[in-house]
TrEMBL record:
rRNA processing keyword on record: no
Name of the molecule in the record: IPT/TIG domain-containing protein
GO MF entries: semaphorin receptor activity
Keyword annotations from UniProtKB, A to Z: Membrane, Transmembrane, Transmembrane helix
Low complexity composition-biased segments: 436-448
Domain IPT/TIG residue range list: 21-110, 120-208, 210-300
Region spans: Disordered: 428-448
Keyword Transcription regulation: no
Pfam families: TIG
SMART domains: IPT
Amino acid sequence: MDIDKLIKIFYYFGIWSSLRLTSGFQISPMYVPMEGGTRLTLYGNFWNNFTDINVTICDDPCGNVTYNQSSIICTVRLLNATNNAKSCEVTLSWSTSQDNDNVTTSFQHETGDQKLIFLSPMAQFFQPDFGPLFGGTLLEVKGQHLNIGSRSRIIVAGNECDIIVDKFANNGSIKCSTRKNNKAACGHVEIYIDHFHQKLTNANFCYKPDPLITKIHPLASIQSGGTTVTLSGTNLDSIASSQLAIIFNYTNMNGNDAEQGNCSYQYNTADILCWTPKVHSFTEHHFKNYTVIETDLEIRMNSKKIIIGDEIPKRIRIFRDPHFDTISSKNSMLSKSTPTLSLKGRDIPKDINKADIKVMVGGQRCPVIKVEVDVLECDARDVIEQFIRDVTNQTSVTHVTNSTVGTTTPENVTPSLHPVDISRFKENESVPPYPSSTTTTPSLTQPPTQRSYMVTIEIGNYNRSLGQVTVSLDGSAAENFYFIAAIGAGASGFFIVLLLIATVMLLIKLKKSRLKKNQINSIRDLAEARLGKDLISFFSQRVFLFNIKNFRV
């Protein structure tokens, strides 16, 4: 054999070896709509010098084949109506040839390990159903098998909606961001997945006029964040509240930085309420010579900036976190005459929303009435009233027993006897005494006159425990409390005594009635006994006389 021809054979054998897929090939995507149109990609190690590439899916050809050394791409056709299979094998075939030297090598039927799955997508609903004209609304369509195929499109009220690629999304939803629209209008939402198409006719998406912020209050926050900022303006209801954010843009030692807090539309006031973020990059070093730092402010809906009126300041002041002194025993007493709790400290932010400052005394809120840089005061009257109610409920009235009223033993009373028991009738038995009766004497248990409560303060995300405060009954309150308690105890005792006397009198009356009845029964028994004796004697004498007369005869 010619040596040159042998070298060429080995050369083409090398081509064949390179073309063979030693570890098979991978396909993407694995899930496609039954309507077809999916651009299917086969990944592997392919050689450039080959011809006649074919890809079949369930024995149906995959059209428009293109390829390079690392991938082969083709278009999946509509699943054959006569083919009931929804899981298909993907088969690759190819050939190589060299016409000049009449050397041809052909290889067929390389079947991949993965199968192509055909599914039927179905869109059910979408949210939200409105957004501003400038776009940026994050629209989510939910249903079944929506994250399949090679290309998806969503049309919102006639406008293209930019698909948001999320590799972690499940097949039950697909998201997009609306584009800018020129006029307020409503329209259907349509979804395309390759050759699959569905129009959701059960609801419309409406473009609404753009919002405009005309007031921001207060333009202040603290280092820990969590305080509220209220936004007022026009057309604020055009925005889905779950997509709003307040942004702090500032420069630190590492360059530009930003922090983001959440916002929510308030339907009852038609305002937007935002919670300021914690400024992580601000440390004591930044506040070394300042108690407040200003930073730029933005309100965004996803990637879109909401317009703030030209006359509105676009900077916000960030105060350093406050410091409060621990409560001392000298000024920690609260009562009805001194109901104000005073908390001393420094750097207390008085420009933030006062409703964001929460003072808790024993778990009950103490409304803030005064805020200064070095002192904060709250009204503790509700706490004091609750303490008085608790003390009143804890007051108990006990009863002291074993106070004997007396023992009654009736004299000269003949007990009841059985009608024929004459011998027992003659015995004069004493009547058992009445049970000893007892009365109850009320006794007032002295309640506590003071109690300690833990005081905590919360300003946004900042919270501290400041120690304990003592709540007490002052002189007038204590006297009134004991006077009322004594009246209550006395009335209770008097009622118990009356009830006891009435009970004893009723028992005596019942006993007398029973004894009287017993006496009558005893007299009747005696009469019956004597009458029976006389009758026996009378009849005995008659029988004796009758017998004598008969004997005489």
